[in-house]
Amino acid sequence: MAILPKSSVDVIPTDDRLAKRFWIKFRRESMLSLYSPFALSLASGSLKIDTFRHYIAEDVHFLKAFARAYELAENCADDDDAKLAISELRKGVLQELKMHNSFVQEWGSDCVKESPVNSATVKYTEFLLATASGKVEGLKAPGTLATPFEKTKIAAYTLGAMTPCMRLYAFLGKEFQALLESNEHDHPYKKWIENYSSESFQASALQTEDLLDKLSVPLTGEELNIIEKLYHQAMKLETEFFYSQPLTQPTIAPLTKEHDPEQYRLIIFSDFDLTCTVVDSSAILAEIAIVTAPKSDQNQPTGQIGRMSSVELRNTWGLLSAQYTEEYEQCIESILPSEKVEFNYEALHKALEQLSDFEKRATLGL
């Protein structure tokens, strides 16, 4: 089972540069990719080879578009240093393609030709190439770009759409590499993990971010907002790409590395509908019942059990809610110690039992 380390998942960088700021802002998509069934199976080494072959075939199509986008961005950049940096990044993509080709050679069959391109890959590559071609909302048509600065904006927009992919793969590579034991040589996807966790790929991801920051310096606030939208769209498309990989195996998201099933019991807390909501959903459910209830002057269909009117429901819910809040606060006050104490498992267990008893009484109306 893949157990993802806490280090880079829990620690959020505080860098205020543009690329870093976007990476932090859209961290949700990176977590969705990290915990996708495909990523979990790959990290644990349990991913079936047919699924990996399909992924490689899809990624080859994507990387070809990625290389082409770099080429178009290089043509738009008016700074020699930027052109050189983009050219180097493109060479890195070509190296990735060589790694993918080595997989194909090992398998003895051309999965790229045998596998049809799925819709998620097409959607992603079309977005990338459209951006690199200048087909961006708020930008003049590609053929009417009059000044070098207008062309440079296309390079900036293109890097805005490409940077998320580089940073995400660098992130995944480091996360997966932390799972490999130092003496583990038989992980089937070790080569893939080592490539994306390597210093060279990490440096390429950082170089892409630095280049995006540099190209974005002369842009207006409105133009920076366009880059942010492109960055976010690319992150969402990357997540869709991972979730589009076909899996025929069950996948379990790991909870903790330290858990010893022989020594500790694992308790999973969830809401009544097996979810853990950010806010209490009781009020939302009550409001749904109230707004769908018949009006006080509305005749109900014959043969159906009579329902309370919306006014009656709202009044009743108001009374129940006020009573629950008051008794809940009293329960919490009785549980909390009057002074600061050291953590005590037995005391916590007892407090949770008291809270559980209160919730049962409130739910059952005892």
The overall pLDDT average reads 79
Distance between the termini: 44 Å
Unreliable stretches, pLDDT < 50, 5 or more residues? 1-14
What kind of sheet is the major sheet?
Answer: none
Number of helical stretches of at least 4 residues: 15
Structural class, from secondary structure content?
mainly alpha
**DSSP strand content:** under 5%
What is the β-strand count? 0
Characterise the protein shown here.
With 366 residues, the protein is mostly helical. Helix content is 65%, strand content 0%. It has 15 helices and no strands. The protein has helices at 7-10, 18-25, 27-34, 37-44, 49-76, 80-107, 111-114, 119-132, 148-177, 190-197, 199-216, 221-243, 282-292, 310-335, 345-364. It starts with 6 loop residues before the first helix and ends with a helix. Mean pLDDT is 79; it is low at 1-14.
Question: Layout of helices and strands, plus pairs?
Answer:
Elements: H1 7-10, H2 18-25, H3 27-34, H4 37-44, H5 49-76, H6 80-107, H7 111-114, H8 119-132, H9 148-177, H10 190-197, H11 199-216, H12 221-243, H13 282-292, H14 310-335, H15 345-364
Give a short overview.
The protein is mostly helical. The chain has 15 helices and no strands.
Task: Please supply descriptive tags for the structure shown above.
366 residues; mainly alpha; 15 helices; disordered N terminus
